[in-house]
Design brief:
The complex is a heterodimer of chains A (about 300) and B (about 80).
Chain A lengths: L2 E8 L3 E4 H8 L3 H8 L3 E4 L6 H16 L8 E5 L10 H9 L5 E5 L5 H16 L1 E9 L1 H5 L5 H4 L4 E9 L5 E10 L7 E2 L7 E2 L1 H23 L6 E6 L4 H11 L10 H4 L5 H9 L7 E8 L3 E9 L1
Parallel strand pairs in A: 4-5, 4-6, 11-12
Antiparallel strand pairs in A: 1-7, 1-8, 2-3, 6-7, 8-13, 9-10, 12-13
Helix pairs in contact in A: 1-2, 3-4, 8-9
Chain B lengths: L1 H13 L19 H15 L16 H11 L1
Helix pairs in contact in B: 1-2, 1-3
Classes of the chains: A alpha+beta (about 300), B mainly alpha (about 80).
Chain lengths: ~300, ~80
């Protein structure tokens, strides 16, 4: 068994609105909003790292859970924007949290990373007890590096989200997940060291708009739950128009898909956990997490309120 | 025959008449965007009772009326 025990988040202080972003990119602020639904995003300070944001979100999640770092058996850190090839941020997060007893693993998967890390936590919790899942991204560094591509750079922001998964107790039980990977599309969305983000937007949208609803439908059918009976869909916040399209395909009103993209932009793997940490509509019944990202990797997970 | 119906479907999605040549890019002409392409494939699957597999989910295969027609005729 595995339960959700608490979520946390960290958002850098600096708010970058569309007027400032438009001036930096040579784009009209209204165009940015119309294309993405984004009105502002957060940019981290130069001295803030993926690990430091992950630690802040992790501390928040532990506090919200009433759990201590010393109780953790495993720390999973998802990030597609780690500052170095190795070691990844997970070991640094383990040290800075003060959890020497915990093993730490990186999930370098970008947007879908938090969902895949939660699936790992689901499997690991029965063995280790408490798992801290963290997703942290400093997307501002690669997207604002020259040469900037305005259609890509306008989308992203920085931040971190976290979740404590517990073998024994929590407000929602993790019941099932459906994940997929299509490595033939690895070149369609990628970030190489020293290069800007490469995104074939048409491919990404097309595959996300088909694969995420399919994963959700498979999961719901397997659990015997109607989409309309799901309390909320907490999805990776990639693009407001994509959320609408997926909601339409799933067969629910878009209001069932929690949306905070106007405030934070796309914070890659962090976004789903930030959204979960802000969701205040209750966890009774079924709640579905979903994500899509580079790889391509995608999937959905269902939890049920206890 | 199929090309005429495909053009009608494209017009419904674009919300305006399709006036470009059958070999011109629907994306470059602004008639189709990423979300419109998703709608197009869904409508083609229903209209012609076909299933577009993941391996065919490539915008290049649906970039012109000619390519869409060719794709559908090979499968319908």
């Amino acid at each position: 068994m595995a339960f959700l025990r608490g979520f946390g988040k960290y958002l850098p202080e600096r708010v970058v609105g569309n007027v400032e972003m438009g001036a930096l990119l040579g784009a009209e602020p209204d165009w940015i909003r119309e294309m993405s639904g984004i009105e502002m995003r957060r940019f981290a300070r130069e001295d803030e790292s993926v690990a430091s944001m992950a630690v802040a979100a992790g501390v928040d999640a532990l506090e919200k859970s009433g759990a201590a770092a010393a109780e953790l058996g495993l720390i999973l850190v998802s990030s597609g924007t780690a500052e170095r090839r190795f070691p990844g941020p997970a070991s640094e997060v383990q040290f800075r949290l003060g959890a020497p007893q915990a093993i730490a693993m990186d999930v370098p998967m970008a947007s879908a990373g938090a969902l895949f890390a939660m699936a790992q936590a689901f499997e690991w919790a029965p063995r280790v007890g408490k798992v801290l899942v963290v997703a942290a991204e400093k997307m501002s560094v690669p997207v604002m590096a020259e040469p900037r591509e305005k259609g890509t750079a306008m989308l992203f922001g920085d931040g971190a989200g976290a979740c404590v998964v517990d073998r024994d107790q929590g407000f929602a039980r993790m019941v099932d997940f459906e994940l997929g990977t299509d490595g033939s599309a690895a070149g369609e969305l990628k970030l190489e060291f020293g290069s800007p983000v490469h995104m074939n937007g048409r491919m990404v949208i097309l595959h996300a708009a088909r694969k995420v609803p399919a994963a959700i439908a498979t999961l719901l059918a397997r659990r015997g739950v109607a989409a309309t009976d799901v309390r909320v869909f907490l999805m990776h916040q990639a693009n407001a128009n994509l959320l609408s399209k997926i909601a339409q395909t799933v067969g629910v009103d878009v209001s069932k898909f929690y949306n905070n993209i106007a405030r934070y932009g796309n914070t890659s793997s962090a976004s789903m956990l930030i959204a979960a940490s802000e969701w205040d509509g209750g966890w009774d019944g079924s709640v579905v997490f979903a994500a899509f990202g580079a790889g391509f990797h995608w999937g959905a997970m269902m939890v049920e309120g206890t | 025959m199929k090309q005429k119906r495909i053009t009608e479907i494209l017009s419904e999605i674009a919300g305006k008449p399709i006036t470009i040549g059958s070999d011109e890019s629907l994306f470059d002409s602004g008639l189709l965007d990423s979300f419109g392409l998703t709608d197009l494939i869904t409508k083609l699957e229903k209209e012609y009772d076909i299933s577009v597999p993941d391996g065919d989910l490539n915008p290049r295969k649906f970039d012109t009326i000619d390519r869409i027609t060719e794709y559908v005729e090979a499968r319908a």
